[in-house]
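Q: Give me the 3D complex with beta-D-glucopyranose.
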Amino acid sequence: MEGTLADGSTATQTATFRTGLLNPGDWSPSAWITGGLEQTLLRTEFAVPADATTATLYVSGIGYFEAELNGVKVGDHQLDVGWTDYTKRVYYSSFDVSSMLKPGSSNALGVSLGNGWWSCGPSPGTTQPHCAADPPQLRLLLVADGVKTPLAYSAAGTWKASKGPITYNSLYNGEHYDARVAAALAGWSGAGFDDGTWAAATNATSAANGAVISSQLFEPIRHLARLPPASVGLPAAGVQVFDFGQNMAGVVALTGLKCAAGQNVTIRHAEVLQHPPYGPKDGNIYVGNLRGAQATDIYTCRGDGTGEDYTPTFTQHGFRYAEVTGLGAPLMPDQIRAVEMHTALSQHSAVEFGTPLLNKIQHAVLWGQKSNVMSVPTDCPQRDERRGWTGDAALTAEEALYNYGMGAVYSHWLDVFADDQAPNGGSNDFVPALGGGEGAPNWQSAFPTLIWGLLTYYGDGTMATKHFDALGKYYDNLEAEFNSTGAKGFRTGYGDWVVPPPHPMGDKHLIGMFALLHDLQMGEAIFASVPSRAEAAARRARLASLHARAAADFHTTFYDAAKGYYGSGLQTEQSMPLYLGIVPVAVKSKVFDHLVHDIEVTNGGHTTSGIIGIKCALEVLSAAGRTDVALRMLARTDYPSYGFMITHPDEPATTIWELWDSPTEGPGMNSRNHIMFGTVGSWFYKWLLGVTPLAPGYAPPVAAAATAAAAAAGANSSISVRPSGLGEVNLTRASGSVYTPLGDVTVAWALNASTRRLDLNTTIPPTALATVGVAIAAPAAGAPKRAADVTITEGGHPVWKDGKFVPGVAGVLSGALSADAKAVDFQVQAGAYAFAVSL
Ligand code: BGC
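A: Here is the predicted complex, encoded as structure tokens.
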């Protein structure tokens, strides 16, 4: 590196950096090796020259690997590497192992392999799909800076294999660990261990060997919080049931076990305790809804009396309760922890309300979201499913993008979408697709939705560029489908999945058409972001014309002019076209009024929608200025409602349920930790906190530079801060912060119920211009105030008076009455603002 200093002199410094292994040839001379289905411990020894002090271990193992160097675990990843379509793409992880090396002497590497999604081991007994008969396999390369040849690498001749202490492992069923075997193998991953009885590892010959091997560039799965039990039950002699107070994804860790050699300690996991109709309320766990997943870990004691610890390695459970049996004396609470485990996403935004129920819903959304990212977004973490269901992720993408840093995970997952794209251009129901073809409308939509979401919320257009051609094929397929069926016969799939019984789902063709139109709208924005591709403009034009045709056909086909509503009048059927903005102006208020009437009057304030309809309904209510209706729905605690989940006496939800009526439904499809109804989470940020992007990634056009001059010249704001629901349904305050690539936007508003003073504090990050909508009318206060009658201050100085903007306050560039006359919109520069108004 060379730089010019302030005094004009030049300074040079040498900096070195390591790259990943970018080409298949970089892996030479390593090979994929295996010990077979049962011999899953692999080891080797190698000399390390005295001058080798900086070293990197590149390692991949499928299903999963755990590597140890000189007897110590390398890194802190769990269930590594991430899930892909292994025949097409396999990830590797890189670790700086410099401090673990012993230069100048013999070193040892030991790797334990798990089945994961790749293999089912020697005795499957699992309903897990797509278990290859292939055994787990390993690829590894250890290189040191300045040393020409690798210090170690996976190769048939130099590695040995043995059975290990993990005698059974399955994601669905759990793990069996025999600590007697572990004791006999003590020191196996250190130098000098006698592996004379071990077999030779052999070359693996699976289809995965031809896959692209690329660096895992997203957060690993890690052990995160360790939750102590909140309470312990004893439903029968020798049966302890620990309640960790939180439904989650993870494993249970036991410590200090005193047990005899060969004694089995069994841990079973469950989301809920038994209650009618499943059985008596006797404190026992209910596992019916885990279906074929046994979710049972068995630890066999070594019995040396020193106190034994166990945390499973190659499995994962979805649970709130753990039942422990097989111990002579009861386990003390400090001997057991629930270890939260999932892709280590960082939460980068937060929101909090003055209403406890809303906070509990948000809590359930956060836990539901993070426990459903296990290297790919999943439907659920507990039953025999846990797949990368795409519809669930498409719906909740906005919620996830607000709450967590999803960039890396979505980017890798989109690569797998492209790997598995159906021959006709369609995308899949779940990804990895496990051989499936084109997925259902609204499910396959995850492909454009995630690309659109990364662009909209993070300003990240790299996926739009990378998958431009795959998207082109995706849209060609949609066009062909619509051309052959029209709206009337459009593909249906799952429809508006899991509506609350006894309500009907509505017209599945209408719901399928919603997917088409929504995909087209996102597609236009996506293609607009790739001006580097010559055909982008033509693509956009084609989508726009298809959208116009499809929207017109939608209206003609599904609108009942005599009745003034779409379809059979269901909430979903009205919410979808309103959400899309395709309802002709002439009938828009009729349709909207019907929706409100159906919610408030016909259904007593309840939703009748499934996972897609509820998202649309909440959004369209707020967009039309009726956040009060949405809040009333959310304040309910009777069936069906979010509050019903949160306050249910038998099983108060700490994550979002799969079904509105989970506690009374059978085990067939009934998880208590599905994220697909978690869409309310993005509505919280958009409408109650009121923060939305007005440009991709909240980013101002470069030229705007957030100056007053730029604003005067008409530069558009790229951030909108416009909270709604002020004072409605007892909501008196909301606060939080929202990640943007420019820096956080913070908002805190409070409405004093007696003085009617509204305070709205917000900070806008550097370089942005924002429009802050300060309400001048809160319906709960009675008749809206007239704009001419209110005075709005910022930092105590008037910025709006006598119906006019008052210039002069630093950073507040302009103010104008909003289109609905319910707020004054101020355009502001970066900075902190404290607006106040009396309503
Ligand atoms: C999954 C869902 C998924 C649905 C589609 C279920 O089994 O758990 O989340 O979207 O199937 O049919």
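A quick observation: The mean pLDDT is 95.
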